[in-house]
What does this fold into?
Amino acid sequence: MEKNYQVSGKELYLWRRTAIDRALAAQIAVKEIDWLLQQVSDLDSLSLRLESFKNRSLIPLQHSIQQLTLLWEKRLTEHLPVQYIVGQVPWRNFQLSVSPGVLIPRPETELIIEIAQQANGFSSEEEAHWVDLGTGSGAIALGLASVFPYATIHATDCSKAALEIAKTNAVTAKLNNQIQFYHGDWWSPLKHLKGKITGMVSNPPYIPSSELPQLQPEVFKHEPHLALDGGTDGLDAIRYLVTASPEYLMSGGLWLIEMMAGQAKAVVKMLSEQGDYRDIKVISDLAGIERFVLAFRR
Ligand code: GLN
It folds into this structure.
């Protein structure tokens, strides 16, 4: 990140104080200001909270104080998520670029990578093809590439804008040689890999259409509905992934998705009725919410 501006600790302290007053009035968490400041300066969250930066003579900044004020204004008045404002989000060990063309990767999704890693029954000696369907920012594909360094990762998305961002993120993470990106719906660009897939991981849209307007305005107004809207019952994409995946997965291949609270029962039922899956398991996120379903191709 280029830091072309400099500001005194005192000036930044005063800016932060004013921003906090405005955040409190708008019922926005103060930690968002600190998150923004961490992204555009070299300050960490502790020095911000303790305000110990106040005595520094000069702090390098990516933006001028005036630009920072405009950005914070956008956050307050337009409900623009702070991650889109700075264009970055930390996710696992990556610093990902994001724009309104992709869903902002969520912390709860980070766990899906460990689940895949722990459930994988294949050895690194075997040829491995992992798939991230609906890759968005590329977060899951990057995570898979880092825990399966010997594998080829295939990432698809029907949005060209999303693929561009995902490719940039793969280059930044130096994982672009390991990941192949394809434009198209779900499995459709991967016909050549039928029966060869070691594991499929996906965070598909799963929110029922009628519930979208009840999401926070930050999400509803700014994040791509394509990545959120799962149809009438929220399960359209997951239903497709249940039926379409068996012909792509090798025997013992892993099927792993993220879902919303309350969907576990329906997803497990779909998988068992489909007949090609074994060892179906629901896994909770760190907040204790049933968030993931794992199964294996018979
Ligand atoms: N977890 C996201 C949210 O709560 C939804 C992501 C998705 O639909 N896959 O906004």
Observations:
- The mean pLDDT is 96.
- The longest helix spans residues 9-25.
- Residues 75 and 82 are 6 Å apart (CA to CA).
- The chain has two domains: 5-77, 89-297.
